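Hey L., structure's done. Input below.
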Amino acid sequence: MKNARFLYNLFDLDGTLTDPAPGITASVAYALEKLSRPVPDTETLKRFIGPPLVHSFKVYCGIEGEEAKTALRLYRERFAAGGLYENKMYPGIDEVLKSIKAGGGRVILATSKPEEFAAPILEHFGLLKYFDFVAGNTLDEARPEKIQVLRHILENYPDISTDNAVMVGDRSYDALAAKQIGIQTIGVLYGYGSKRELTEAGADMLAKSVKELGAMLAE
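Output:
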């Protein structure tokens, strides 16, 4: 059995542990239809995976202000009704998490999704048992940005440092936030971010597959 390379292993959720495309895209489409707004093509809808939703409604649909808040409420209405389970775990992720725990590492979730949704998703896939701490946004949007989520984690684990921690994620937001708090990053290329996006955001390592990720997290 190999030891965990890092004491603290922070994981993004969407596009890193699970593929949430069906639930997220359907929930975005639902919100736009309720607002009598045009629904963009599937590729544009997939861009909602990762960034804060209010930001995406503004960038991709021109919705902001009070209407953006309404769009977020409608999205969550559809997502809570079943969208969160229209999702699938990337094969082998459970073994990666199991190996980290067996090797003495700690596993922490760092997601922009509200914790009220994130924890049930982890439980649904049998992954919650591997996590020492679940950190995310809140339903009242107290932590919509990834850097705010990471600072929340630091408040609970103040000994996290450059030498003992890594952030694993598929989008630039993960790498950029990790750099701000001074920890290493692994960008996963099987998610929704491109090699260029992750490289330009400063990811220290890139994993092409779940198997490769597992090797990077073990000594």
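The domain at 8-20+87-216 is CATH 3.40.50.1000 (Rossmann fold). The chain has two domains: 8-20+87-216, 21-85.

-- N.
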